Fold:
Amino acid sequence: MASRGGSAHRANGSRDKICHFKLVLLGESGVGKSCLVLRFVKGEYSDHLEATIGAAFLTQTVNLDDTTVKFEIWDTAGQERYHSLAPMYYRGAQAAVVVYDISDGDTFVRAKNWVKELQRQASPSIVIALAGNKADLKDIRKVHIEDAQSYAEDNGLLFMETSAKSDQNVQELFLAIGTYRHT
Structure:
């Protein structure tokens, strides 16, 4: 699905371009995908979110210069039993955020598998961002930022460490994707 464009009137009568971006979040269960989306869309955080079943759909609109970007966000379930459904959600996506937990090395290994799958099966023009979530847990870090940064650079990924809990780099992550996609 290519970025759709339209226009919206500003109060001063000028027109803004509107872009719709399908974005999918992928990663293992418990890495904080739903918390990132909740923080981005509603500015809220909860320690007690239920595990996502299948996928959840949310939208968020942001303004970037003269462009209004409407993110159509698919927050996918992380449990292994839902893995086979993932292609249905990332098919046609302009962007993907692959999330891992910096305090759990296994989730980083699995994040690399998600990246490989996207590189093989998703649109060649998809923007892939790697998000090291739970940056507030740096005292029990298992994934070094240098390792993740190097992996991201080697694979052409955007990279940020985030914390949905402390709101670290959450807006910045999505804005970086939107900026990259609309330039």
Summary: Residues 1-10 have pLDDT under 50 and may be disordered. Residues 6 and 36 are 28 Å apart (CA to CA).
